[in-house]
Amino acid sequence: MNHHVVRSAGSAVREPHEWSPEEVDAALRDAFAERRPATVDGLGRVQRYARIPPGKPVRPLLTVWSALAVGGRLDHVLPVAVGSEAAHTAGLVHDGDGIRRSRPAVPLALGAEPAVIAGNALLIEFLGALVRVADRGVPPQAVLETMRIAAEAGAAARRGAYDELALAGRLDCPVETYLAMAHGKTAVFTRAACESGAVLGGADPEQAAALAAFGERYGMAFQIRDDMLAHRTGDAASKNGRPAVSDLRNRRPTLPLLLAYQRGNGQQRRTLRRALTRRAPSLQQVHQILHDTGALARARHMADQYWIRARQALDRLPQSRARAELAAMPLPAP
């Protein structure tokens, strides 16, 4: 088994599957710090605001652990892990409304025009990441394949974002339509994170397909669990700092709401329709309906099934610490 020098982790020498979670976290922190704007005014100020405080780096961790799970080098994947998170942050900046990570979104805090420019700058960082991995010795074909994966994910996400707008206020839409939208909104990115890590790590086609399937199913489980956060009794805000009423005020029909509407009686349906159109919906009423109709339990079951199938996809990979870390990736706690 080859030994690899990983420059971003203090020049320590490690075999592919020996990196501990603490070392990976430290390497990611260092890599993010290297890309953080040095200036605190102008464009640098806007970009720093968008990135700090950071959310949990789910996609970067998926990318890194996927590469390590197939025997890849940490330094070969770190730039893309960080660059893809910059691209994700760009989407939040462009789409930002209300509260993000417990504070006003960039357009509200610093203005819409600076937000657009900063978001574009963050998107361009991903292209620079591809250059950096090529400079570190990643084969050109792997770099090109990573670009293809990112391009296809971006196209699918664009369709998902548009579909979400089209679903606004539609409590009668089929669950299948919602799941297709959620796939484009979230699962395409987690799939791309795992698949790009696999490619940069030198995976064979079967390993790359297994990690892509894991990422896709994990993303679906993640999105459904995230939908459930706003409906937890007594919670004023979700885990990512978004107010619990945000989806209702934006008329976004989350999976629990759709399931409750399907299962509810006439009075319950009328209450849900009012909640989706009123400026100050009664969260307690909505939660009671979700509980009484079994919608929350059904949504939890659907998320659990996606998560079970995600971990089953990992059975096609050799046993390793990296594979175990993927199988233990966190999900929002409903």
Task: Throw out a few tags for this protein.
334 residues; mainly alpha; Farnesyl Diphosphate Synthase; two-stranded antiparallel sheet; 68% helix; disordered N terminus; Isoprenoid_synthase_dom_sf
Task: Describe the model.
By secondary structure, the chain is mainly α. It has one domain (16-327): Farnesyl Diphosphate Synthase. Helix content is 68%, strand content 2%. It contains 15 helices and four strands. It has helices at 21-35, 42-51, 58-69, 74-95, 106-110, 112-135, 140-166, 175-200, 205-229, 246-249, 255-263, 266-277, 283-292, 295-313, 321-327; strands spanning 4-5, 13-14, 99-100, 103-104. The strands form two sheets. It has a two-stranded antiparallel ribbon. The chain has a two-stranded antiparallel sheet with strand order 3-4. Strand 1 and strand 2 form a beta hairpin. The protein starts with a strand and ends in a 7-residue tail after the last helix. This is Polyprenyl synthetase family protein. Residues 1-21 are annotated as: Disordered. Pfam families: polyprenyl_synt. Belongs to the FPP/GGPP synthase family. Keywords: Transferase.
Average pLDDT for all residues? 85
Which class in CATH terms?
Mainly Alpha
Which residues sit in consecutive blocks of at least 5 with pLDDT less than 50?
1-17, 235-241
User: Any idea what the CATH architecture is?
Assistant: Orthogonal Bundle
H/E topology pattern: EEHHHHEEHHHHHHHHHHH
Lateral strand order in the biggest sheet: 1-2
Kindly estimate the percentage of residues that lie in beta strands according to DSSP.
under 5%
CATH topology: Farnesyl Diphosphate Synthase
> How does the overall form come out from the CA principal axes?
globular
**Oligomeric status of the shown chains?**
single chain
Please tally the β strands and state the result.
4
The number of helical segments is 15
Overall domain count? 1
Structural class: mainly alpha
InterPro entries: Isoprenoid_synthase_dom_sf, Polyprenyl_synt
Pfam family, one: polyprenyl_synt
Keywords: Transferase
Organism: Actinomadura keratinilytica
